[in-house]
């Protein structure tokens, strides 16, 4: 069986022009280091006899010849929509098209197009048994990345966000075999139910055990868990997140938190497997491979064939996570096929476009993007040229160089507290972001301890649940905030106008991004 599928896979690889060496490398799951985009994951699944029947990505083509739209965005200013396609057939997302279309306003992702030709697009999820709807749509800018050096955006699922298709074509039903993979941000998760991608109920209700077969990622322990403290890749099979054969704990399912995480699930009659790995290098590990769970209702399965992203089968929508690409197949993919897909993924070259809190390390160059919608999600924190004030204003990669440089900061060890940070201007060396009478200015470090205190901010989880907030080290209830497009330190309610509780959480939450300048 395995030999046959390997031979078929090898023939197809050679037929698509891949070198014999490459084919051998892929079949042995060795990560390719530099691979031309001659084929996508779905070409590999097809060659293995398990074709994609759904293929979603906001970052790249999943077939070597795909040249259609990847996703659609809608902007807040006039509700116009725009399809975002590729830079070239089989290539990478045209993120600049999104930047141009959404400049000066805010955009959400309205459609994730299915590249498989089956029409299994994902759109705004409707209400379900567990929660009303329609669900929120993802902010189109909150998950910036690069793929092979090309800027792209992932799907940032904040709690309340969800996509679904209840009228699909070709997705497994009943006990039919299927496979799926997704690339997630392994650092963005929570314990809510349920950040899923995969097969679910067609009526958005919990219709019983075995009616789902979806990838789950997060640290929810209500139904099951693996080793360590999570997060875990698990299988959402309905009324249960499964990490192995047992309901509950299975030691074989490790905690995984790679910045880019490949998660794989496949299931057929009385067999299923969970696999995963680093989407940037190396092969896959098998977390579970065996019979269906030893709990009632999961053998045979009762899959219904809807597709969900970011939510549970009954539209439970308390979870968060980030999705970059994923597919579902018809048929149970061989391990060799999945290994070849993983080699394709690692060769794709995913990289962090947003530095996140992890890159708030001394020496990093970053920009800070506002998160308040709809006014300000294209706005960055910058210093003025005409005076020393610090403000927010709209900017993107195409902005004048001076604007981009004014919005670029070098992270320094906190001047007053080494566990916090200070921000030095990238184009005015020696000048730091500091507050004075609670307003933000760019001033030269005069070495005084008062200046050090005023210029030191302690990163915390975003007050709105998104991004990062920056607490003033010497006014511990006050956080870096924009208010009427000017920057202050502000508490959530207080005597200054900028202490207004309106939008305080969003105004004090920032995305740490790659530097504009
Ligand atoms: O199986 C876990 C969750 O249980 C499902 O996603 C949801 O439909 C139900 O609440």
Which word captures the global form? elongated
Question: What percent of residues adopt helix (DSSP H or I)?
Answer: 10-25%
Instruction: Give a list of the ligands.
Output: alpha-L-arabinofuranose
Number of helices: 8
Side-by-side strand order of the widest sheet: 3-2-4-5-9-20-11-12-14-15
Question: How many E strands?
Answer: 34
- Give the terminus-to-terminus CA distance: 54 Å
Which key features would you list for this structure?
517 residues, 8 helices, 34 strands, binds alpha-L-arabinofuranose
Task: Characterise the protein shown here.
With 517 residues, the chain is mostly beta strands. It contains eight helices and 34 strands. The strands form nine sheets. It has a ten-stranded antiparallel beta sheet with strand order 3-2-4-5-9-20-11-12-14-15, with helices on one face. Helix 1 (2-15) runs antiparallel to helix 2 (20-27) and helix 3 packs antiparallel against helix 5. Bound molecules: alpha-L-arabinofuranose. Residues 130, 193-194, 206, 223, 236, 238-241, 312-314, 316 line the site of alpha-L-arabinofuranose.
């Amino acid at each position: 069986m395995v030999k046959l599928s390997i031979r078929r896979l090898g023939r197809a690889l050679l037929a698509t022009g891949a070198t014999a060496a490459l084919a051998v490398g892929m079949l042995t799951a060795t990560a390719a280091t530099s691979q031309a985009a001659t084929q996508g994951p779905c070409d590999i699944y097809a060659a293995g006899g398990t074709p994609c029947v759904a293929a979603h990505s906001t970052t790249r083509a999943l077939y070597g010849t795909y040249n259609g739209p990847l996703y659609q965005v809608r902007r807040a200013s006039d509700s116009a929509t725009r399809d975002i396609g590729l830079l070239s057939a089989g290539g990478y997302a045209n993120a600049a098209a999104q930047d141009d279309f959404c400049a000066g306003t805010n955009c959400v992702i309205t459609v994730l197009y299915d590249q498989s030709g089956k029409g299994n697009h994902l759109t705004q999820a409707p209400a379900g048994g567990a929660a009303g709807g329609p669900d929120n749509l993802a902010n189109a800018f909150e998950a910036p990345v690069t793929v092979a050096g090309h800027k792209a955006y992932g799907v940032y699922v904040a709690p309340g966000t969800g996509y679904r298709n209840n009228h699909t074509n070709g997705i497994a039903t009943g006990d039919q075999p299927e496979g799926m993979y997704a690339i997630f941000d392994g650092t963005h998760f929570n314990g809510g139910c349920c950040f899923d991608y995969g097969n679910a109920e067609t009526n958005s209700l919990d219709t019983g055990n075995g009616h789902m077969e979806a990838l789950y990622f997060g640290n929810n322990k209500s139904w099951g868990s693996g080793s360590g403290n999570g997060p875990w890749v698990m299988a959402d099979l309905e009324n249960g997140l499964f990490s192995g054969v047992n309901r509950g704990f299975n030691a074989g399912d490790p905690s995984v938190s790679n910045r880019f995480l490949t998660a794989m699930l496949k299931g057929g009659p009385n067999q299923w497997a969970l696999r995963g790995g680093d989407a940037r290098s190396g092969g896959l590990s098998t977390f579970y491979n065996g019979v269906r769970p030893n709990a009632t209702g999961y053998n045979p399965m009762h899959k219904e064939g809807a597709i969900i992203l970011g939510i549970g089968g009954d539209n439970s929508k308390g979870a968060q996570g980030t999705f970059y690409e994923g597919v579902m197949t018809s048929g149970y993919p061989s391990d060799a096929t999945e290994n070849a897909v993983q080699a394709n993924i690692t060769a794709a070259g995913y990289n962090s476009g947003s530095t996140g809190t992890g890159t708030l390390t001394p020496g990093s160059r970053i920009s800070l993007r506002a998160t308040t919608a709809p006014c300000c999600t294209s706005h960055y924190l910058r210093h003025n040229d005409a005076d020393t004030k610090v403000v927010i204003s709209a900017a993107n990669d195409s902005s004048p160089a001076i604007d981009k440089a004014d919005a670029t900061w070098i992270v320094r060890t906190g001047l007053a507290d080494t566990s916090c940070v200070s921000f030095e201007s990238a184009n005015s060396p020696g000048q730091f972001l500091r507050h004075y009478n609670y307003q933000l200015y760019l001033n030269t470090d005069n070495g005084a301890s008062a200046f050090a205190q005023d210029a030191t901010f302690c990163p915390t989880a975003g007050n709105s649940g998104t991004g990062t907030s920056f607490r003033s080290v010497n006014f511990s209830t006050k956080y870096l905030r924009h208010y009427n497009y000017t920057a202050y330190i502000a508490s959530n309610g207080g005597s200054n106008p900028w202490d207004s509780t309106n939008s305080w959480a969003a105004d004090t939450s920032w995305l740490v991004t790659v530097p504009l300048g």
